[in-house]
Amino acid sequence: MSVPQLRSPAGLSYAAVVLLGLCALTDLFDILFSLSAMAQSGLVANPGRFDALHGALLGMQGFAFVACGIVFCAWLWRVRFNAEAFRPDGHKHSRPWIWCGWFVPFVSFWYPRRILVDVWRASAPDRPGATGTGLINLWWGLWLVCQAETAAPEMAEKDMGTSLFDTAAAYSVGFSLLDLIAACLAAAMVRRITSMQYEKAMAGPARSPEPA
């Protein structure tokens, strides 16, 4: 059986990192906006202005999240293809789960992480400690916590009192901070896997992709 031609994930990794940075930037904007709203009682007194500003910010976050998700999965498809060349028998889930695993109920809690762990281990260079997946585990833990944001109090209630408003704003600050950290960890993970694949390709007989 012929060894599959390796494909460079460098371009997709750069795009994913840029979009993860955009997600982190919108999280930072949300943190600053929420803190400002807590400090300015005028926003509570003028809920129409608050709704408009908060809606625009949520729209920015949604756009960045969707764009980042598409590019991240495209990058993951590429590195999974290479990982199968490095280690054909080291993958528990088939490639379509790269996309489907995020949406199927229940399995979405562990399939994406499992796919990334398999890719990491297949791509890791042959040296002690290289197969450790602590970065993936930390990112995935934060990702799961951030998915609980939908259970936080909604800040856009027009009849919300100051106390409940401050509670909702504090939730928003906390979740946005965790999401910002998760985006930075995801960017580090993307660059690390891309670099490991380049290193492993250079060390092996297969044709190497362009430098990451």
From TrEMBL:
<protein>
    <submittedName>
        <fullName>DUF4328 domain-containing protein</fullName>
    </submittedName>
</protein>
<feature type="domain" description="DUF4328">
    <location>
        <begin position="50"/>
        <end position="194"/>
    </location>
</feature>
<keyword id="KW-0472">Membrane</keyword>
<dbReference type="InterPro" id="IPR025565">
    <property type="entry name" value="DUF4328"/>
</dbReference>
<keyword id="KW-1133">Transmembrane helix</keyword>
<keyword id="KW-0812">Transmembrane</keyword>
<feature type="transmembrane region" description="Helical">
    <location>
        <begin position="55"/>
        <end position="77"/>
    </location>
</feature>
<dbReference type="Pfam" id="PF14219">
    <property type="entry name" value="DUF4328"/>
</dbReference>
<feature type="transmembrane region" description="Helical">
    <location>
        <begin position="168"/>
        <end position="190"/>
    </location>
</feature>
<feature type="transmembrane region" description="Helical">
    <location>
        <begin position="97"/>
        <end position="113"/>
    </location>
</feature>
<feature type="transmembrane region" description="Helical">
    <location>
        <begin position="12"/>
        <end position="35"/>
    </location>
</feature>
